[in-house]
Specification:
heterodimer, A: about 290 residues, mainly alpha, flat, B: about 280 residues, about 0% strand
Amino acid sequence: MATAISILPAQQLATLNDAYRKAVARKRLKATVAAAVFCAALFIAALGADVNLHTFFTYFGNFLSYFDRILTLDSGARVWTDPLEWFWGLKKWLRLLGETLLISYVGTLTGAVFAFALNFFAAQNTAPGPWVRFIIRRLLEFARTVPGIVFALIFVIAFGLGPMAGVLAIAIHTTGALGKLFAEIVENADMKPVEGIRSTGASWLSCMRFAILPQVSAGYASYALLRFEINVREASVMGFVGAGGIGQELVVAIRKFYYSDVSAILVTIIVTVFIIDISTGWLRGRLFGKETRR
Amino acid sequence: MSQMPRPDTAELRAKYPGVFERPASARLAMPAMIVAALAIFVYGLVDLDFSPTKLITGMSQLGWITMMMIPPNPGSSFPLYMQALGETLSIALLGTTLAALLALPVSLLAARNVIPSNLIRFPVRRFLDSIRGVDTLIWALVWINVVGLGPFAGVLAIMVSDFGAFGKLFSEAIEAADRKQVEGIRASGGNALHEIRFGLLPQVLPVIAGQVLYFIESNTRSATIIGIVGAGGIGLQLAEQIRVLEWQKVSFLILMILIAVAAIDFISSKLRFAIIGRRAVV
């Protein structure tokens, strides 16, 4: 069954069409100008970054063949045909991976403790005074913005080569990142329990301990676990600057063209990251699950 | 003062057994976890060669370095540093844009509402996951092997590692899109490409634009560090000055990075607000 569609008289339609076209044209003009500005920025960026399409197309084959090469053993066979030969250094790599995990664990825990100590001073609703809050906030911002590996470079000089520099670099970066997140949780906390505790004559410390902490501890644990996950990735490259972990081995393999070693180490890193991701995800699910059940 | 009525503990106990008599496992779980966490921590300190003497000498060394950093002073290399900073910003902008352009078609393949078949989606997703599992610095090293030292390797490194992240984020944005527009296009006789172009893309483009802007912001940070392995930009200068112990230049470079990141933060949050605002109006 066909339904009749009522069409407006031509004159009325023309004015409506006109208005529509004008509205669309303005929007299109805006979009075109934005696109043009963006393209200009891209062009300038391409000049600034020495982009050379000729090099790219000449060597792009190298990129693909690089993966071909890292998946080939010295004997010329594919790596998966001889896993024992491929993972010949598995024992050493696993030890270094263990070190990487320990670096990120110790770094995350230290950073979380510092963030925990500082965040009450950084949150708007619990800070004892505006000056303290301002200073702590700037400190956290600094620790967060300077990349962890820059801290590692400096610490390697101050503390000597080795995992200690990596741990401290991760700890500082974690303090900055978690301090901000923790403070945000505290800002979202309910202030009524604080008033209740304060009305009994309790000190600021007791207010934090008995009113705020029970509300926020689950959120803290969840963010700290998430950070641990990120830090495992970060710790895997700390070795590039001599700050311990599997990165040292990887950078040597890449620079010296030990092709099959590169792929083997990359595979162990990726698998470890997967395992850590999945297990912390499971742990966080359990922590939050308990919260909602209550 | 009136006497408070004494609570009948026996009755309360009977009423809320879960509060008064928690099973031993629940009472012990928390302390056990804390003890385990501390044990691993201490083991880690021992295994990673922490010692108080090392810490104290390192700290004094660090204090000395900090003293040397003040006041920040670029010497005569200021123009060089500005150029390096420009290079870093270029790397971030170009790398992120290329990654977004490449990731858009692939993210369609990884989205459940576009490709219902598990057969294609699963390998695409795992592929994206493994790209994300490798750090940007590692990609930078690989690309340096391919195109040589310099900022171009940095652009390609950012491009590849963001490709993995964007593929995942975009596909999630596409999966969250409303079905109704797509069905409307199909009902009026559009084919699969029309559905994507007129049904999906108008919904997801603002979300994607916001994410790309956010990544440009965070990539300014990543781009500063890939220079450390030789992929151009301000990180290269920073690593060099740290290695030759020119601390005043180091602190100046760090200051430059902080200011640049803050500026990019400001601009991109303004732009993101503009894009989201426009979406709310339309």
